[in-house]
Amino acid sequence: MTSSSSCFFSEASARINHGGGRQVSAPAAGQNSFPPVKLQIMDQYVVVGNGIVEVNLTNPGGSMTGIQYNGIDNLLEVVKSETDRGYWDVVWKGDGIIKKKGALDRLEGKNLTVITEEEEQVELSFTRKWSSELQGKPVPLDIDKRFVMRRGSSGFYTYAIYEHSQQHPAFQLANTRLVLKPRKDKFHYMAISDKKQRPMPLPEDRVPPRGQPLAYPEAVLLVDPIEPQFKGEVDDKYEYSMENRDIKVHGWMGKDPSSSVGFWQITPTSEFRSAGPLKQFLSSHDGPTCLAVFHSTHYTGADLMVPFEAGEAWKKVYGPVFVYFNSLESEVSSSSGTGMSLWDDAKNQLMIQAKQWPYQFLGSRDYPIPNQRGGITGRLSVHDPEISTRNLPPTGAWIGLAAPGDPGSWQLESKGYQFWTEVEEDGSFSISNVIAGQYNLYGWVPGFIGDYKYGAVINITPARSIEVGDLVFEPPRNASTLWEIGVPDRTAGEFFIPDANPNYINKLYLHQEKYRQYGLWERYAELYPEADLVYNVRTDDYRKDWFFAQVTRKKGDNGTYEGTTWQVKFSLDRAYQNVNYTLRIALATANGAELQVRVNDPSSAVPLFTTGSIGKDNTIARHGIHGVYRLFSVVVPGSLLVDGSNTVFLTQAINTGPFYGLMYDYIRLEGPLSTNPPRN
User: In angstroms, rounded to a whole number, what is the distance separating the alpha carbons of residues 488 and 472?
Assistant: First the structure.
């Protein structure tokens, strides 16, 4: 059965149940001019279509085998098996799972229920219940995958409800996502943002001898690609990772603007994704592949594995994601010859979907509709007496609701929902459509170190907005700044990022986001082959003289590495001996690193401070500029300092391999409080 069938009927077999859901909301004006939505059910397949799009799914598995649109019989990759074209999956660990990275479960359904079958809308539910006899095989969750098609819509919606009941065993959730694989002969041009768009190589180009594997499997040098334009480039899916707050629309277009079709994923909200607005996820990448990742440990490591205890009750709705297709009769070609109007139309569709969210037409009662949600408003300012005696507007600040915890804990929170917004210029903020529950209010402000957290737990109730009034963030500070390196923005992006080795480039990043290039960790040893970085706070410029990552140095060709020690040199007119200074070290990311701090004595067997082994972010290898934010405040006794020249030694001691290291966000030394009065 392919998705090209045009004969629609509704036929319930013995294993299909018609379930009750919410009443379908009224169609938008003009929608009745489109054909009604129709459903066709057979023993092995289900087909749902609305005259614009037709989707074929396995019965009762719920895998997408075909999508028919604009005269193309299938937009999905036809050379792959039927269950490897479009699907939901999880990676998990638990009893009986021996694979290091966990077991992959494609979440194949066992029962089909028709939730809604009306002219305006069809909603299908593919479910699977876990039982004890399945121990160690599928993930111990009850799964409900939903697919919704509406009249007049050039696409469909999909979402899923995961439930861990009191009868389920313990396990850990590592990753869950929606995977769509467009046809490689139809889709060649990828777009993930206004500035990040490009033609992509074919998947065959990654396979030897056309492709040469590099330091890890995801990175491949294209040495003999089918299309010569890609020769000499590196292809790596992590080069196209995006921050949660930016993942709203991405996808694929055809090669020829005159016949191009667009294939897009649109998510008007990120409430269901893990770890807050700065968490990085994969998006679209070579394949072609179009992902909606809801939870992963990328750029955070094992700290973001979701642990479930035996008998722990939990339920979460992931999605919905709107899978959208477009094909414009009148293309507007850019100078690069790509169908840019398809991208513009997809962005416009994002705005349409955002206005409709939270959707009122979904059939699951686990998805709260607008009158079941609440909100919060207030105003945030910053008070830092080093800068001003008056409160300051929090320029560029983000504030949000997440599960109760310590300041900054939202970075590793994944079981609940998170709701974030960027504050207005005057500090005011409003977060609406928040799912009822208990939250803490968190935030951070670029230009200031640390995390904000409102003191009380916020109880969001349906149809009510809470006003918290004027809030003041007081970033950590003991005394005035003696010197500083960098900008406190939670990234290492302001530091020196070298040009890529010309033998390992991605052309997309020659003039933007240079840190996305492959192999930059090797450039450090080329710049500092023998001695490590020495930085003078008076004369050096962190934009040119502070390497963006403190990494290991490769020793010859024997596969061994050594830790590195960076020096920060500064002068004090007078060092007060009987008081304490404070060294603030904000890290943008760490991977298997240990940062040791020594002052004026690099040979001291015991450092003044050590982080111990921290981080599994793997940001260095995955072309990132930040991972999990960490702030350390080191007490420096005045007795360690001298009048005149001083040196802080920063040692990254772990030397196991090339990807062990860290990135700094910001460093500053604060003087003793008694000698540094606040300035207006």
Answer: 18
